[in-house]
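Hello forum,

I keep getting stuck at the same step: I have a sequence, I want structure tokens, and every attempt I make locally crashes halfway through. Rather than fight my setup again tonight, could one of you with a working pipeline run this one for me? It's a single chain of 356 residues.
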Amino acid sequence: MSLPPLPHPGYPQMPPPQMPPYPMPGYPYPPPPGYPGVYLPPPGYYYGPPPWPMGYYAPPGPRPPRIWTVFVMFGAVIAVLLIAQVIAIFIILAQHNTPFTPDSIQDRLQSLMASPSVYLPLFALTFLIVGGSAVAGAVLSPVKFKQRLELGAPRVRWWRVCAMTIGTVAASWLIMLIITLFPLPKGGALENLGEMISRAKGWVLVAQIAAIGLIGPLAEELLFRGYIQTRLALRMGPAGAIAITSVFFGVLHFDPVQSTYAAILGVFLGYIAYTSKSIWPAWLGHAANNTVSVCIANAGITDPEARTVPLIFILITAGVFTLCLLAICLGRKRTPAPVITTPAPLELPPPPPFAY
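Reply #2:
Ran it on my machine without issues. Output:
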């Protein structure tokens, strides 16, 4: 008696004969010529040699997003900023007939940087490079411009946006109050900036609020929370993306004290940008913090020479920040579990009779 023939291709699996070389169910067949996928037969079916009338060709999975462009972009921004600022400083010194000796350059530069006609164009140049690089990178990206920079409307309610804004200001002041408790070097970027702001009056103060309070935060959020963090989050998750972006955010400020402050605050800004799926809450909090800081520094309410902070100020600021953080976290909507549906079984014609 001869063995029964193989089942007809495409019919339910039957006990296969003890003979090679036919593949078992689930074995990936090679794709046809020119197709980049893998042929996968339906589960529970036994196939003979080709042609295979059933099954499907599974296309290859999506390629992981590129992250090397993020690091190249950040390195290019740092290099262009340094080169542009050095060139701008030498042009300013040349216009004021400053002899190019180390002592004269340093003394003359400190006096010139106190002039609004000098530091405001430098601010504008910095913000143009930072924001322009993010826009250029998004334009060259295959992803849609609005999606690449997270420019959509926040996916949170309005009261959570308010909590994010107030929480950013509270977090900023809490960080500064804690940093003030440590011995800080004098003559840093924050101290020099505070002196420039304190002397501003009239249109200079308005220009400082527009530059430091509105345009600067927008340029920084476009680059860091928009261009860098959104791409890194696709490869390494939100925690790694927020951490790396915050470090980059601190490095951009080129000052030990200000970089430490910016890196810590960048963690909170990155969190609210990721939670809201938009850079606008982060920009709103960033802008509110910078605007309040400019107004307070100009009014002379804070003392840059102070090295002691009352404990009650730290406790109040920490309490406000905690309440805002609770409002942000507790207001999140729970994502419903996906509904898994079982596909209907295939209806196949009956197999042909076996011949013995």
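The radius of gyration is 31 Å. If your local run keeps crashing, start a new thread with the error log.
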